Amino acid sequence: MSDGEAAQPTEDSAPSVCLCIPTFRRPQGLRKLLAYVAQLSYGGSFRIIVVENDAQGQAGAKIVEEFARDYPFPLTCVVEPERGHTFACNCAFRAACLDAMPSTYIAMLDDDEYPEPNWLAELVGVALKYDAELVGGPVFPVFDAPEHWLVKTGVYAPTRFATGRVPMIYGSGNMMIRRSTLEKYLDEPFSNDFAFTGGGDEEFFWRCRREGRTFAWADDAPVFETTPASRTTLSYLLRRRFRAGTGATRVERKLAGNIGSAARRWLKALGLIGTAVLSLPFAAFGGRKAIVHSLIIAARGTGRIAAEFGILYEEYR
What we know:
The protein is of the alpha/beta class. Helix content is about 40%, strand content about 15%. The protein has 2 domains: about 15-230, Spore Coat Polysaccharide Biosynthesis Protein SpsA, Chain A (Alpha-Beta Complex); about 235-310.
């Protein structure tokens, strides 16, 4: 075993885990995810809570009812009537923490993802080895159109780190948190200001880091994200990077809202746009890949400036 590898817990030592899955109008994605979760190799006590965020249609709730009859793990569904990703996540967190027999760890996956069989064992192993309160792992896109030229530019490659302690993680699509830590934030773990824009998870991680929580990365705990053709377009990519820019600025304004931080925010935004403008003439000689990289830098910088004036892109509205 290398220094970066975490020993997986045995069945006798494995802590209990509750997996939270927020879902909204993706019944086939949820069906696929639950089929993969059923194959997890984790030996400890394990249960799943699905939060249905479409109180009218409840297609996800129907999928849970179908699977629960003979599912290998306890599987329940809660309906969150307030629309928005953060409302669904927070509902799941509360249900997991306030359960009569709460789990040691709370994990989360999105309803357009699916894990490898050893995913959960790897997350738990890293959490135990590095005594981390929050653990994240990579999310690899799986494309409906893998031959599309945008896919080949590499811009969809996930953020990755070496397994071990990290300053912070950045997304809830593949994460686990110690229940005793999450309980300290149950009033509103993911800020509902980000319900339709995304970024509530990043704001939560920033708060946790500021308060001294410990983070680790499990690079051998991947999950895979179904990526339809509608997401392999330049317009989608630029909107996504614009949103990332607005989200970063909103988090920084909320958690470090002083004059010095404002100056740093503007320098970052103008630096990104300046870099993009200066690089574009040279990118023309580098082909479409180089041009796309310049454009997404510009989109992120533009998003940062837009957020300073309250202009937001509600991707999940």
